[in-house]
Amino acid sequence: PDDIIIGTPDLAPTVVTIRDIFPGFGLPFTSSATFPLSRSPAVQAIMRLLEIPVAGFKREDVIEAFSSPYIGLIPEGSTLTPAVIDRIARNAQIIEGYSSWKNGFDLLENRLKKTIESPDTPDYRVREARTELENTQKSRKIVDHILTELKGLERADICKAHIERIRSLLAGLKINNAALLSEHEREDLREFSDLLGELDNSSLFSAGEEMDYREFYRILRAETGEKKIKGYAHQKGIKVTGIRELQQMKYPVVFLTGLTDA
Fold first, then answer.
1. Confidence (pLDDT) at 175
2. Could you tell me which residues are beta bridge partners of residue 157?
3. Taking a C-beta distance cutoff of 8 angstroms, is the pair 236, 28 a contact?
4. Residues 100-148: tens digit of each pLDDT
5. How many whole angstroms separate alpha carbon 215 and alpha carbon 229?
6. What average pLDDT does the segment 234-238 reach?
């Protein structure tokens, strides 16, 4: 593979296509193409998690966070799954709003307890209700924990304090888990951590003025879109490059793609 080079006039989209196809055939590749940090799936997962308070603690956003392979919200060894938590949240009639999670769980637990205690409830239904109550209480425990952490982000504060709370949240979630992330994804998270450091040291916030979390999140989202990363520059394999760079290189095997007639 190191003897092969692919040249294209539209480098970034071509690399995205190759990234999705080549691994399925066991073909490694390398490229100097740059991408916005916001295109990293791992960083997208973090940003969607951090957006939950901004969007109003919607059920679908919370369940998406629990479903993410990049964020370890469900404790290791737990019998709960995102699908179970989603079903329980739906049964609790939770739609959105921080307080609706507590109120919904309260109502569901009370309803299940009444079912269990009622002399009119058949034995099989009592067993089902007990299992559902146990899962509801387990779900509530882990959901309450993460929602409380996210709720804490909402306080108006200086930039440094917002960043410290985000770092604390992500460290507590053990989001940079080698068992879940590839080296490429871990590098993306290091770039995200560096971005937080750059914001912390930015002259834009040196005055120490407070801002609400919604405004800080808007700035952070914009910065992840502006920050460029070389996502595949450190890998070995088939080289993918732009047409102009190709003119300065010599390879035994050359492929050209994306060319059209003038």
1. 60
2. 211
3. yes
4. 999 999 999 999 999 999 999 999 999 999 999 999 999 999 999 999 9
5. 24
6. 78
Both tokens of 47, joined, read 């940003």
CA distance 6 to 40: 23
What is residue 54's DSSP assignment?
H
Residue whose pair of structure tokens reads 């193409």 in the numeric block: 33
Give per-residue pLDDT as tens, 33-49. 888 899 888 899 999 99
Q: How many CB atoms lie within 10 A of CB 231?
A: 24
Residue 10 one-letter amino acid = D
Closest CA to 47 of 243, 241, 222, 229: 222
Contact (Cβ atoms closer than 8 angstroms) between residue 253 and residue 5: yes
With beta carbons less than 8 A apart as the criterion, state whether 41 and 70 touch: yes
pLDDT above 50 for 3: yes
The Cα 217–Cα 45 span in angstroms is 14
Collapsing DSSP to helix, strand or coil, 151 comes out as: helix
CA distance 22 to 235: 13
Q: Which residues of 198-217 are buried (b: 16+ CB within 10 A; e: fewer)?
A: ebeeeeebeeeeebebeebb
Neighbours of 237 (CB within 10 A): 15
Mean pLDDT (whole number) for 196-215: 83
Long-range contact list for 207-211, CB < 8 A, 24+ apart?
208/158, 209/158, 210/156, 210/157, 210/158, 211/156, 211/157, 211/158, 211/159, 211/162
Instruction: Please give the share of the chain, as a percent, with pLDDT higher than 70.
Output: 92
What band does 206 get if pLDDT is binned at 50, 70 and 90?
Answer: low
Contact in structure between 115 and 125 (CB atoms under 8 Å): yes
